[in-house]
Amino acid sequence: MKKMGNHNSILKKLYFCxxxxxxxxATSSAQDAAIPAADVAAxxxxxxxxxxxxKGKELFNANCAACHKLDAKSTGxxxxxxxxxxxxxxxxxxxxxxxxxxxxxxxxxxxxFEENNKVVMTAFPQLSEGDIDNIIAYTSTPKExxxxxxxxxxxxxxxxxxxxxxSNNVVLGALVLVMLMLVAMLFLVNNVLRKVAKANNIEVAPxxxxxxxxxxxxxNQFLVLVSVIFLLLVGAYLVYGFLMQVGVDQxxxxxxxxxxxxxxxxxxxxxxCKYCHSAARxxxxxxxxxxxxxxNCHKNISEVAESTATPExxxxxxxxxxxxxxxxxxxxxxxxxxxxxxxxxxxxxxxNLPDFVYFNHSQHVTVAGIECQTCxxxxxxxxxxxxxAPLTMGWCIDCHRKTDVKMEGNEYYTKIHExxxxxxxxxxxxxxxxxxxxxxKCHY
Length: 444
Ligand code: HEC
Ligand code: HEC
Ligand code: HEC
Ligand code: HEC
Ligand code: HEC
Ligand code: HEC
Description:
Layout: H1 4-43, H2 53-64, H3 88-96, H4 98-103, H5 107-115, H6 129-139, H7 157-199, H8 213-219, H9 221-244, H10 262-268, H11 273-276, H12 291-298, H13 315-329, E1 331-332, E2 337-338, H14 361-367, H15 372-376, H16 393-402, H17 411-424, H18 432-436, H19 439-442
Antiparallel strand pairs: 1-2
Helix pairs in contact: 1-7, 2-6, 12-13
This protein binds heme C (6 copies).
């Protein structure tokens, strides 16, 4: 308590600096918080149309989505804002039976028919005019607006992120406020104590001569010895740890030229690994699929569903990735044809064993029947592909020691199995007992 007097001026300056810093951070975070709040308010403008866009969306998805998209040409033209092109009475007739309208010689109908390579649109006599009103109301919703599901929270990513930001900022602001109050209180207490000391004429004691801890330590030889041994051990441990991880790239997850999500493909859409990595069954390498394989599906999938978007990755982001694929294969989605201008996609290789190691996929996938996930982890959950296993020699050997070879139904093994199981006196054989530890099997 008495020493306080010595530090007073330094303490005062420190408090002042801290308080200043906190005030600044508080005002700047308050500004951050204010902007998204305004954004959220501005985004919520409802569409003013006759029909019900929510029912319209259901009808659209059930009847029209096979050939129409809102914003892009598919088999039929993009339908957003189509109400401004035609009278409603014309649209009723068109949807009920477009061929009849074309045959009747209606100029607008003939024109749109010819513009779309004379593809005949299905007739929908079963849809009432009210149904069509609803569909048209849905096609008239403005583009940026997030899907409005009655009562449900806004699913658009922009809304979600700005709301997250808002709550974070509020929490931050509150914390800053509490800190500020604490600082102010400390400052006041310090002041009061100083005044009390002065009023009571308490002398500030002179500094006592300190015994240097360092000198005391150097004098004690036993302590020095123990410390040196301790430091050497820690050092050796750290160096060993460092050397062991040289060349081990577990968890390596590079940014790929196209953000390709295994979670969306192999997880959500349950596409089999071997559909794309077909070589894994029959050859040494699993291989990366050619872009033609992608186009088997992506001729028709030019954008992702609203529900695919996450707070981290927006629909716009995913759509841009698919556009990158189109640019690479030279696909023009408006004319639905190849332009002939291609450019390669340079995927970054993730798994890479040293050249002196021989690893064969078909041996493990087809013969041993090991699931991809045993070595590559839960790939169907990866938004970004990464290296799951360490790929060290210890990792290979460990599994060869633990895993039994699948003998049933494999004639190749029948005779070897008889001999070896006698030799080892066991019924089952591990890969190691089959020779999976011989250096030459894995090393050239
Ligand atoms: C089998 C595919 C197919 C289905 C299903 C389909 N359409 Fe069409 N639609 C077309 C094609 C193709 C055109 C272009 C005109 C043509 O070639 O007949 C078109 C044109 C239109 C047009 C004129 C667009 C313009 O910009 O001129 C409207 C409106 C329309 N469709 C509404 C609908 C509605 C509403 C539904 C669902 C109830 C629907 N379509 C279902 C294929 C389809
Ligand atoms: C629709 C095609 C497709 C499907 C299905 C698919 N992949 Fe892939 N895979 C790719 C593409 C493209 C890459 C390269 C880009 C990347 O690394 O993300 C890749 C990369 C990989 C890699 C990393 C390759 C490297 O560079 O070392 C592994 C491992 C992998 N996939 C395993 C799997 C597994 C396991 C499954 C099944 C659960 C699977 N994949 C399903 C297309 C596919
Ligand atoms: C068997 C069908 C199929 C194949 C093959 C396929 N995709 Fe997809 N792809 C889809 C589906 C389905 C979606 C998700 C659509 C949605 O969510 O609405 C998708 C979404 C995407 C997306 C956006 C989401 C993301 O992953 O970033 C990209 C980019 C993409 N695919 C690229 C590719 C590439 C590159 C290939 C070839 C290596 C490929 N796809 C092969 C069906 C396929
Ligand atoms: C026994 C473990 C193991 C299993 C099972 C396995 N992999 Fe691999 N995978 C590896 C190793 C090790 C590498 C690195 C190979 C190299 O660098 O030569 C690799 C590399 C890859 C690669 C990168 C490039 C290439 O062509 O080799 C892909 C893609 C891949 N695996 C996909 C798969 C798929 C799909 C399956 C399931 C059908 C699968 N793997 C099963 C261990 C395994
Ligand atoms: C998940 C367990 C597992 C992992 C990990 C694994 N293997 Fe294997 N491996 C097996 C099994 C099981 C067999 C026996 C296949 C058979 O012949 O039936 C095998 C067989 C082999 C063979 C053939 C052995 C022989 O007797 O002909 C080679 C070579 C091999 N593995 C190399 C590797 C290398 C290199 C790695 C590491 C990069 C590795 N393996 C990782 C399970 C594994
Ligand atoms: C099951 C497969 C397998 C067998 C059997 C095997 N190795 Fe390896 N070995 C590997 C792999 C995989 C690596 C690469 C490890 C890495 O990159 O970290 C490796 C690396 C090495 C290295 C380089 C040092 C290092 O750790 O990177 C040496 C030396 C080596 N092995 C010697 C041997 C000898 C000697 C034998 C026989 C007693 C043997 N290996 C048996 C798979 C095997």
